[in-house]
Amino acid sequence: MKQVENGLEKILDSILDRVPSIALGLIILFAGVYIIRLVAKIIHNRFERREVDPSLREFILSLLKFILYAMLIISVASTMGFKTTSFLAVLSAASLAIGLSLQGSLSNLAGGVLILLFRPFRVGDSIQSNSGAAGAVEKIDILYTTLRTADGIAVFSPNGVLANSIITNYSDIESRRIEYKLSVSSREDIKKVRGLILEVLKKDKRVLNTPAPQVLVSELTPSSVNLIVYSWASKNDYSGAFYDNQESIRETLNEHNVAAPPAQNEIHIVASGEKKQ
């Protein structure tokens, strides 16, 4: 019984001896978190005043906070009485194990660095990748890039995937080509139809004069003339011009009684006595 009491006393003495260091460690922890947040806010404001690229700004802040928090954890552990060398050895072994199990995350980190170095896109750009990710770039973090789709959905795409994908950056150009495909009856006057369509496009100030709009015959069939319409608009006017003129062209053709190709139906004749499949 005496041995148990002695053991409990030793444990209690050990805990009491560590109370000041544990309390100091907790104070350092809370103070450190406050200071890191304050430093991050100051740097963020400084970057904004100097108009640092938003994508680079967010990435640097994320990386800086990661490093500072790692240093804070090591400092708190040392203050509480943990041997720093042992702690670092355990941390290194854990980092190696985590690194092997999270190779994809390391790839994403490297991808984020490549994106910031070569800048295929920036915050605010509208992009599409062959991996399926598409939308406006809202944020580039250490591991993920946040995209906002046209219908307001947030898409988080790994940087490693984006760095190894073919990226189409719609914001990297000043103007975009608008394309329509339509068919009219083969009996219609092509010159008349072309004139009507060009007149619609000419009235829209968002449609650029250079390159000039075009109405081309893409295919001739016994019952129809297939047309393809090209026009250009600035990247900011693209969506509005695309949908508005598509509607206006249809309304104009209807007003001038431009006939559509006759509907075609397939009729299968089954011989008498033959079973229907």
- Rounded to an integer in angstroms, the radius of gyration calculated over CA atoms is 33 Å
| Beta fraction | 15-25%
Structural class: alpha+beta
Largest β sheet strand count, sense and barrel closure: 5 strands, antiparallel
Quick overview of this protein structure:
Helix content is 52%, strand content 19%. The chain is an alpha+beta fold and 277 residues long.
How is the topology of this model organized?
Layout: H1 2-49, H2 54-79, H3 84-101, H4 103-118, E1 126-129, E2 134-140, E3 144-148, E4 154-158, H5 159-163, E5 167-169, E6 175-185, H6 190-203, E7 214-220, E8 224-234, H7 238-255
Antiparallel strand pairs: 1-2, 1-5, 2-3, 3-4, 6-8, 7-8
Helix pairs in contact: 1-2, 3-4, 6-7
Could you please describe the fold and organization of this structure?
By secondary structure, this protein is of the alpha+beta class. The protein has three domains: 2-101, Helix Hairpins (Orthogonal Bundle), CATH 1.10.287.1260; 110-171, SH3 type barrels (Roll); 173-255, Alpha-Beta Plaits, CATH 3.30.70. It has seven helices and eight strands, in the order H-H-H-H-E-E-E-E-H-E-E-H-E-E-H. The chain has helices at residues 2-49, 54-79, 84-101, 103-118, 159-163, 190-203, 238-255; strands at residues 126-129, 134-140, 144-148, 154-158, 167-169, 175-185, 214-220, 224-234. The strands form two sheets. The protein has a five-stranded antiparallel sheet. A three-stranded antiparallel sheet has the order 6-8-7, with helices on one face. The chain starts with a helix and ends in a 22-residue tail after the last helix. The model has no long low-confidence stretch (mean pLDDT 83).
